[in-house]
Structures are given as C-alpha cells and as structure tokens.
C-alpha cells in the first residue's frame, strides 16, 4: 500500500473541518458514467506540451514538474504558460536545460527564459533554487541525466517515487497531522504520471505498478470536489476560502483538504469500478482537473496556500 493512501486515510478518518459526502460522490459518479464524462484529454492533446524523442520529453517533464506549483497569486500566468515557455526553450536549444548548463545559469537568464514578463512571479527565487538543487543532485548522483533516475527505478513507479522523494529535497511534500507523518508527494507523483502519459506507458514511460500512484493533491482538484459538494468544509474554513484568506502550509485545514481529496478520488475510483469502469487514481485525477479547467470561471474559490509543493 502507498505511504500517501495510508497516511491520508488516517487524516480523513480524523478530520474536523473537512468531510467527504459519500452519497453525493456516488450520485456524481453515476451521472458521469451515464453521460460518458469519464474521458480525459490525452497528454499530447495539450499544445503546451513538448513533442519530441522520449529522452527530451522526460527532460522537459523533469524541468516542468520541478517548477509546477503555486500559480494562483499571479492571474495571467498559469500551468500552460510555464509548460509553453519550457517547451519553447527545448525547441530552441535542449542543451540549455541539461543539468550541467543549469548549474551555470544565472537567475537573470532563468527569469528571462521562463518568466520574461513576470520578474516578480510568486516564489521565483525559490523556483530558481529548486532547479539548481535538482540539477546538482542529477550531476552528483546520476551523471547529469534524468534518464538515469528513471532507469534506476527499473520500470517501478514505487521505486521512482522513492528516489525522487529521498534524493530531491524539493519533492519531499509531506506534513505532520496530529503528530503523524502525512505524505502527499504531489509533484513527484505528477512527474511520474506525466512521464507515463506522455510516453503512453512505453519505453521510459513503462511502469508495471502505475496503479500505486494516487491523485495529485494540488489546489484545483479539491476546488472541483468542493464545487461538486463531494468535499464539504465546516463554516469557518468555508468562510476563509470564500474570503480568499490564505491557509497556512501545514495547518490542519490544509492537510485535511489535501488528504480528503486523495481519499475522495479513491472512493470515486471504487464507484467507477462497481460500474465496470476500471480507472487508475491518476486517470480520475485528470478527469477532475480537466473538469475544473473547463468550469474555471464559475467555480467556488480554491484554498490559497503559499507552497513549493503544489
Ligand atoms: N491534480 C492535478 N494538478 C495539476 C495537473 C496539471 C496539468 N496536468 C495535465 C497535463 C497533462 C495531464 O494529462 C493533465 O491533464 C497541473 N496541475 C496543477 O494545477 C495547478 C495549476 O492550475 P492553474 O492555476 O489552473 O494553472 C498547479 O498546482 C499544478 O501543479 C493535473 O493533471 N492534475
């Protein structure tokens, strides 16, 4: 069983501010199934994603998912903008983002390449530090090649998750809830999920145990689950989110929102299974995230936590 599922199950069973409405969840899944809404856009249907040979694609994803967090403070720059900016860099000169080159990259170059119109993008210096750190680890332990990290995992998502969350400090997305370690590992799981999706489970994207991954607890999937009344918040939390009050990283509120999202997706997966529709947790995640992206402008606000993890 995964560290993420087990620890989030404990939080879900002991939550004070967040509840999963199981009846609503079942209703929603039946509706989606009947209306054939359990489909999702494939990775290569996104204009913002790089299409290239598998080594370049995984290098692209390593850079993307090392920086794939906390877009909400900046209204006019989102996931798609970051992905497109990195894609353009790879199309112009893939060498630019090799670990050796990143170690020589100045902050100004980094900002010019990825955030040319947003010199004060949220946590931009943290993003630069994280990329430098990740490159140092690649050079020190993996001959400067992310492909060697994937190969070390020998087609196991569990092994790759373990390498990413033990060797790369930026991926150590966990918290303490009522004294217990609670794991989310959002960016490391989404990195593995993206490698799998981009390469359609072949070659470097082949994982024999991809089903061990959970959904990726960010701020978008809880938002759509709350919009669907599957995730219910107590009044105090509801008001904080409605009034766009920041929720502190590591607070009970934040951990309960993220952990109940993980468990809600497991329950949704089980409901689909009962209807004969087998889906992995990451596929349910993509369905929900994309639903959120489509409904974006008339949706309840999401929780706002300043974090490098999601
Ligand atoms: N749970 C989950 N979170 C996801 C994704 C993706 C992109 N994945 C798509 C691309 C290829 C795959 O096929 C997926 O369809 C980005 N995010 C997160 O959202 C937030 C950004 O949102 P906004 O502020 O609106 O740009 C930020 O935390 C980012 O990390 C996902 O899939 N699941």
What's the shape?
globular
Which percent range fits the helix content? 40-55%
Distance between the termini: 23 Å
The overall average pLDDT, rounded, is: 96
Total helices: the number is 14
Determine the strand fraction and express it as a percent band.
under 5%
Which ligands are bound?
ligand 56B
How much is the radius of gyration in Å? 19 Å
How many structurally independent domains?
A: 1
Largest sheet: 2 strands, antiparallel
Q: Which regions are unreliable across 5 or more consecutive residues at pLDDT < 50?
A: none
Helix and strand run: HEHHHHHHHHEEHHEHHH
Reading side by side through the largest sheet, how are the strands ordered? 1-4
Oligomer: single chain
Catalytic activity: queuosine 5'-phosphate + H2O = queuine + D-ribose 5-phosphate
Family: Belongs to the QNG1 protein family.
EC number: 3.2.2.-
GO molecular function: hydrolase activity
Draw up the topology in text.
Layout: H1 3-14, E1 18-20, H2 22-34, H3 54-67, H4 79-92, H5 99-104, H6 107-114, H7 124-141, H8 146-152, H9 157-167, E2 174-177, E3 180-183, H10 186-198, H11 220-227, E4 231-233, H12 235-242, H13 252-274, H14 281-294
Antiparallel strand pairs: 1-4, 2-3
Helix pairs in contact: 1-13, 2-13, 3-4, 3-10, 11-14
The protein binds the ligand Nc1nc2c(c(CN[C@H]3C=C[C@H](O)[C@@H]3O)cn2[C@@H]2O[C@H](COP(=O)(O)O)[C@@H](O)[C@H]2O)c(=O)[nH]1.
Residues 41, 43, 46, 68-69, 71-72, 78-79, 194, 197, 215-216, 218-221, 285-286, 289-290, 310 line the site of ligand 56B.
């Amino acid at each position: 069983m995964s560290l993420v599922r087990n620890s989030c199950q404990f939080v879900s069973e002991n939550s004070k501010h967040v509840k999963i409405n199981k009846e609503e969840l079942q209703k929603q899944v039946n509706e989606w199934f009947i209306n054939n809404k359990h489909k999702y856009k494939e990775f290569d249907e996104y204009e913002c994603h790089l299409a290239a040979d598998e080594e370049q694609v995984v290098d692209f994803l390593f850079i993307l998912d090392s920086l794939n967090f906390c877009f909400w403070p900046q209204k006019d720059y989102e996931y798609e903008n970051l992905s497109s900016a990195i894609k353009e860099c790879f199309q112009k000169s893939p060498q630019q983002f090799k670990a050796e080159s990143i170690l020589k990259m100045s902050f100004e170059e980094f900002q010019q390449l990825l955030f040319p119109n947003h010199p004060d993008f949220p946590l931009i210096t943290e993003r630069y530090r994280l990329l430098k750190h990740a490159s140092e680890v690649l050079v020190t332990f993996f001959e400067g090649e992310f492909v060697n990290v994937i190969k070390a995992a020998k087609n196991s998502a569990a092994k790759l998750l373990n390498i990413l969350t033990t060797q790369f400090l930026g991926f150590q997305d966990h918290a303490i809830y009522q004294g217990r370690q609670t794991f989310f590992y959002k960016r490391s799981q989404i990195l593995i999920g993206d490698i799998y999706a981009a390469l359609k489970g072949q070659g470097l994207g082949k994982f024999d145990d991809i089903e061990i991954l959970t959904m990726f607890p960010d701020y978008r999937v809880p938002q759509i689950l709350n919009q669907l009344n599957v995730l219910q918040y107590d009044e105090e939390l509801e008001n904080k989110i409605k009034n766009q009050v920041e929720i502190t990283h590591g607070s009970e509120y934040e951990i309960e929102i993220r952990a109940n999202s993980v468990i809600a997706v497991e329950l949704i997966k089980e409901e689909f299974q009962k209807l004969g529709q087998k889906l992995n947790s990451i596929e349910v995640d993509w369905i929900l995230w994309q639903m959120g992206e489509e409904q974006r402008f008339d949706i309840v606000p999401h929780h706002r936590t300043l974090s490098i993890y999601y």
